[in-house]
Amino acid sequence: MATPRSERRRDLWWLWIPALVVVLLGSMAAAVATGPADIAVRDVASVVGAKLGLVDSDVSLLRTGIVWELRLPRVLTAAAVGAGLALSGAVMQALTRNPLADPYLLGLSSGASTGAVLVLLVGLSVALPVAAFLGATAALVATLVLARSLGEITPTRVVLAGLAVSSFAGALTSLLVFWNEKGDSFRQVLNWILGSLAGADWSSAALAWGAVVLVGLPLALRGRVLDAFAFGDTAAAALGVDVNRTRWLLLLATAVLTGVMVSVSGAIGFVGLVLPNAVRLMVGFSHRRMLPLCILLGAVFMVWVDTAARTLFDPREIPVGIITVLVGAPVFVAVLIKNRGRA
After folding, report:
1. Burial (0-12, 13-18, 19+ Cβ within 10 Å), 102
2. CA R_g for the chain
3. Residue-wise pLDDT tens digits, 217-265
4. Cα(259)–Cα(116) distance, integer angstroms
5. DSSP string for residues in 264-289
6. Rounded to a whole number, what is the distance in angstroms from the first to the last CA of the chain?
7. Helices 271-283 and 72-96 sit at what angle, rounded to 10 degrees?
8. Is 12 helix (H, G, I), strand (E, B) or coil?
């Protein structure tokens, strides 16, 4: 039961928003400055200010290119991916009333990967976002249909159905890669399947942030509806929510958001699981509080995960998906144990 002190702290939840905005901007500046080339944060600010026409920059052309062409678009893409996946996880957890729900665990990321790898191998990379979206949607529908076929949809059945669909999609992706192995394509696709932002550029940053703005922000404004779902379908209907229509619209929007994120970063697991549960500990169960903070905290989290992925073992870079799984798997077990009574 929440104590009066914790209730007072949660009433001041909005203070987290400016604090996290400052942390996010500081993290992005520090991440752009971090790397083999010795670049100071003030140089990053100078380059960005000059590119925006605000100040004159005395930073060399080489360092300007590193900041503007390499690191900044990658950091921006990482922030958008973290924001999108964290928000998707929070929405899915609300709709399924399952704190273990996550685009990765429910098969969306694997389905998106299958669709994306398919078009990559046939040379239609221009169709990557659409293929990833269709793959994510197909996986989502398969998960819900499978869970429903087992009887009443429960948190345990949804997770088990999602794991089955995710495993099937993963096996199908591996088969596609194995069957079409050519030169370095196997390594390139494997790196993408494990999640990587090494190929991020301004187009991927624009695509990811476009999805966050056009799909993510409307989702973040549905906090009251998601709060109604938390009380069950009957209670939501009594509160005036068109349950089936609203659920499918929100799930479809989540599939779009996940598909776009996977198309620019590959399959990155557990971000949608870890961040919503962390935010829930900070501000409670109200989705009006949770969703904006999931966007900001997810962005901060992914910026630092990607920075760690490209610097910890320099000059070797490890896929970001490996780090998120290393962090997320223990959290998944902890949440599973905490909610074992609901299984």
Report:
1. buried
2. 20
3. 999 999 999 999 888 788 888 888 888 889 888 888 988 898 889 888 8
4. 9
5. HH----SHHHHHHHHHHHHH-S-HHH
6. 22
7. 70
8. coil
